[in-house]
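Sharing a chain and its predicted structure for anyone who wants a worked example. Both blocks are below, sequence first, tokens second.
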Amino acid sequence: MRKVLILGATSAIAQATARLFAAKGDHLFIAGRSADRLEMVRQDIAVRGAASVGVFAIDANDRARHEALLDAAERAMGGLDTVLIAHGVLSDQKACEGSVERALVDIETNALGVIALLTLVANRFEARRSGTIAVISSVAGDRGRKSNYVYGAAKGMVTLFLQGLRNRLAAAEVQVLTIKPGFVDTPMTAAIPKGGPLWAKPEDIATGILAAIEKKRDVVYLPWFWQWIMLIIRMIPERIFKRLSL
């Protein structure tokens, strides 16, 4: 029976994953910005078999409250062994190009706040020599593209940070999982035209996340074919890539 903290729990992927944890009878502690939306999620997963469901309203950029979040989760569940971070926003690239402040806020939200919390979680799990850290990054972090390089830069920062963290925590037998979804049909991508085989549902991504946690994976692309798509994209020479419209 796991004791799971989910940050960004009101996102579509996080909700779908929480339902899978609940179906296995795990303890859950969910956190996010909106207390009202968190309560809706709590009610939903409470009836799906969760051993318990706690709630903590927090803006992930409020670093001063990160320790309080972790302490509250441990008190509510009698411990903590799994952390899933699903926090972030899809940047408006054009808005970020026109505003330094907007670009920095998005990087704060998608990268710096996540890294701050990861640092605290890593220290706790390393001391205990156990635990699972799972973080939703993105295929966008594999290579910078003009259509979303602010978002991609933030996700790339998270991915690289997780690589180092995984290297550090391997000796303590702490799993560090980097989750790289491709196109997912969620409210966050509502403004993007959808359709075709590259788009996945949140439930598909959630199934992949749980499987990767249980198989002790290090990195997972979801759906699986994005691993090969991104390999091809990374292999395109820069002199050619800079002329492409991606």
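Comments welcome. The mean pLDDT is 95.
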